[in-house]
Structure formats: C-alpha cells, structure tokens
Amino acid sequence: MTSTDSLGVMHGIRNVKVVKSLLANNDLVAEANRQTFAAHGVLAINIIASPGAGKTSAIIRLIQALEGRARIAVIEGDIAGSIDTEKVLAAGAADAVQINTGGGCHLEASMIQQALDDLDLGQAELLIIENVGNLICPNYWKLGEQLRLCLASTAEGHDKPLKYPDVFAASDVIVINKSDLAELVDFDRKIFIELVRALNEHAPIFEISCRSGAGVAELAEWLLAQRG
Question: Mapping DSSP to helix (H, G, I), strand (E, B) and coil, where does residue 208 land?
Fold first, then answer.
C-alpha cells in the first residue's frame, strides 16, 4: 500500500530492493562473461564516456596502433544505428557486433552475453566494449570486463571528475582525449588530474589526440601489457 504526504512524496514503494535484485542478477551474468573471456584468453575493456567524447575514434586509433600485434574485436553499444560498427570494421577490427538498446542508457551483462553468440572470440586478443554515451548508468552495470576505461575529452571541461565522481573513482584507467584542443577550450590539465587523484590514486592517466594520433601508442602498449 502507498500513501502520499503533504509534500507529494509517495511512501511504501520498495524500489530499492528491486534495483538491488536487478544489479545482483546482472553481476551473476557478468561473472559468467568474465569466465568466458578468460577461457578464450581475451582481455575485455569497457569504455565509458559522454556522447561525443571520442570513444569510436579512440577504438579506431587503437586498432591501427596494434595492427599486426593484437587482433581487436569490438562490441558497439548505441541507442540506434550501426554506423560505429561499420567504422571499426572498416578500420580493421577482427570482428564487431552492434547492440542497440532502443532507448536504454547503458549496456547490461545479458546484452553482452547475447552478443557473444555472434562474436568470434577465437579471433581476438582484446575485446573493446563501447558503452552507450553516458557517465552515470554504465558505471553501475558490470559487463564482465577486466578493465574499465573512462574517457573524457578536453572539450567537456576540466571539472568533469567533480561532476561525475563515481565513474572516475571506479575506473582502472583514465584517458583524456582531444589533447590538441586543450588550449582552445581552456582545459586546465593540472586541475583535471588533481580532481582525478582525489578520487582515484592509482589509475594511470593517458592523454591522447585521435586527430593527430599523439599518445595513442603509449595507451595501446599499456593495454597490451594488461593481458598478462
């Protein structure tokens, strides 16, 4: 039974338990995904970023940087369309699958599990999962990835970690994209890094430009080294 007080707030709705149950079920599927990746010797990387930060461009640059050294498969998450999947395949991805959420703001472990039916993990050493553009919801839904990569562009401002602390705190690696635009958009690198370090002391921070390719080789080498 529910009731509404004088402020219009409804009482008696047990939505917190429902959310916890959904996340718990998601975590079970995520663990199964993780075991699948491990069985195939694949390092799975979940890229979380805002729309327009440059996720697809970064993936393309990484494919090019690791050509001949590591085969990269990609799972593309978007609300609609398949343009990014077409781009990464054209860039040389070993395989790629599109997930359209139809309005959902994040990928879930079950979506990844289903996508794996159409993905040949035997043809890849790295699996890059491009999550739906969003810095909030994707952070709370594990996919089975071994690495969580948070990508932020200089054009978004140096105060991004202050506004979205949870994703920066939970990420294994932070990437600053569009480094070549920093001066044009008044991006203060020092402040950004200080804000990140207040939340996350250990995650390495890479600065790249997908336009010029600067810094991509260093990021690619680090990712390759994480395969163990």
Answer: coil
Task: Give residues with Cβ within 8 angstroms of 212, minimum separation 6.
Answer: 180
Q: Is residue 153 within 8 Å of 53, Cβ to Cβ?
A: yes
Round to whole Å and give the CA distance between 182 and 155.
Answer: 7
Q: Please name the residues in contact with 73: beta carbons below 8 A apart, sequence gap of 6 or more.
A: 42, 93, 94, 95, 96, 119, 120, 121, 123, 124, 126, 127, 128
Q: Would you write out the chain's pLDDT as a tens digit for each of its 228 residues?
A: 445 554 444 445 445 566 677 889 999 999 999 999 999 999 999 999 999 999 999 999 999 999 999 999 999 999 999 999 999 999 999 999 999 999 999 999 999 999 999 999 999 999 999 999 999 999 999 999 999 999 999 999 999 999 999 999 999 999 999 999 999 999 999 999 999 999 999 999 999 999 999 999 999 999 999 997
Determine the Cα–Cα distance for residues 84 and 66; give it in Å rounded to an integer. 19
pTM over 0.85: yes
**What burial class does residue 188 get, using C-beta atoms within 10 Å of its C-beta: 0-12 exposed, 13-18 middle, 19+ buried?**
middle
Per-domain residue ranges for the chain?
11-225
For tokens 């690619």, what's the residue?
Answer: 220
Q: What's the distance, CA 157 to chain centroid?
A: 19
CATH class of the domain defined by 11-225:
alpha beta
Q: Calculate the CA dihedral of residues 102, 104, 108, 111 and round it to 10 degrees.
A: 0
